[in-house]
Sequence to fold (298 residues):
Amino acid sequence: MSERNWLCAYAITRNRPAELDLDPASRLVGYRDLGVVVAEVEPARFDRLDGLDPVDGTLAELAREHDAVVRAVFRHEPVLPLRFGTVLDGEGSVRRLLEVAYDQARNCLDEVEGHREWGVRVRYTEPAATTRPDSAGLTGTQYLVRRRERLKAVQQTREQVVRTAARLEDVLREHATDSMERPRPHGVLVNTAYLVPIARETAFHAEFEWFARELREAGATVETTGPWPPYSFTDVELGVAAHER
Amino acid sequence: MSADAAEAVADLLDRVVHRGAVVHGDVIISLAGIDLVRLDLRLLLLGLEEAPG
Fold:
């Protein structure tokens, strides 16, 4: 046990090496009809992770590399992405993982096959309600009426945006196999990931555009991201329990 | 970095670092720092998303 052979595992996929167009650094370790895409890893690379500046630093760089490997597989085959930083102790461990978690991994892979993930975000910030009407030439009462009307209009626009955003979510869900709400901080009305069958993507985007136009006219910011490998829909735990504590 | 670029990285990090299948058991080698980074990142993503833009 002189030299450790640490393998970074990126994704579980079908055991069809010929279908994959992997870069020379990665390879497929197979067991029955499943395989794990792995690459030798220098553990020291992870030591430089900087939790203080994850966006600009090493973490972002490593995450992009991880995503690039997953996407390269995803271009040809279905993928069950593994969480960033999954490092296994040699090929024997990779095979043992597939052996133990075979049914679970295979079911999950079957579920996401033929799908891609799309993100939809709707953001809406009300126009400053403090904009006061020009009071020149108005009596006090007229001014207050004008101001109340303005506040009411702001309120109505907001309600309209919220209603349309809810309809957008309902309609998109009909075109998706699954959906997952992501965190919605202040100002974000919708932040949802959809698992869309490739055959329904055109319909999904047509619906999105239809509602997006209405939302944009009302002053909301609307966008999609993707296609993504099904990262948000593979939240499973694959346990190798045999030798666990 | 512009707000859009930061948001694109946040979208990526959230998916790659916080989603995806998790492997448990003695086949996995835990790397110092990874769990801490996940923790920090969660806080940072919340802050980012709240940033105007």
About this structure: The radius of gyration of chain A is 25 Å. The longest helix of chain A spans residues 140-174. Helices of chain A lie at 44-47, 58-74, 90-100, 102-112, 140-174, 201-217.
